[in-house]
Amino acid sequence: SRHRRVVLLADYVEISPHDVRRSPFQARRTFDEGELGRLAASLREHGMLQPVVVREADGGYELVAGERRLRAAIGAGLDRIPALVRTEDDARSAALGLVENLQRRDLSPIEEAEGYRRAMQEFGWTQAELARRVGKSQPSVANKLRLLQLGEEIRALAQSGELGERHLRALLQVQGVRRVELAREAAAGGWTAREVEQRAKGISREMPRRVVRDVRIVLNALRTSI
Question: Is 197 a catalytic residue?
Answer without folding.
Answer: no
